[in-house]
Design goal:
By secondary structure, this protein is mainly beta. The protein has one helix at residues 89-102, and strands at 5-12, 19-29, 33-40, 51-53, 65-76, 80-86. It has one domain (5-102): SH3 type barrels. 13% of the residues lie in helices and 46% in strands.
């Protein structure tokens, strides 16, 4: 797994009362953990720091989706259940820019 990979993960709900298998994009990988942003098909929730993804063979998505850069989690690697696809280089650049904006790293 590397940055920009789209994977299925067991992702916790924000209230920590449950979880759901859902797509996520890899931000970072360590020996034990992955840091990811979750992906949603609820495009009406789009915020300025989200990234709209159009389904294609490379990313493996079935519906238009948003990378929610404000929804970040660090999870045990064993929670990743499979590779869906990958972001292209321009999408990774956009992801980096959105994260810098969100985290006020300018």
């Amino acid at each position: 797994m590397v940055k920009g990979d789209l994977v299925l993960v067991t992702f916790p709900f924000t209230d920590l009362k449950g979880s759901k298998l859902r797509p996520a994009v890899i931000l970072a990988v360590t020996n034990l953990d992955i840091t990811v942003c979750f992906i949603t098909t609820q495009i009406q929730w789009e915020e300025q720091t989200d990234i709209l993804l159009i389904p294609n063979k490379r990313n493996g998505l079935k519906r238009q989706s948003l990378i929610r850069t404000s929804k970040i989690a660090t999870l045990d690697k064993t929670l990743a259940k499979g590779l869906l696809g990958k972001l292209n280089k321009s999408e990774i650049v956009d992801l980096n820019n959105k994260l810098m904006s969100l985290l006020q790293l300018y």
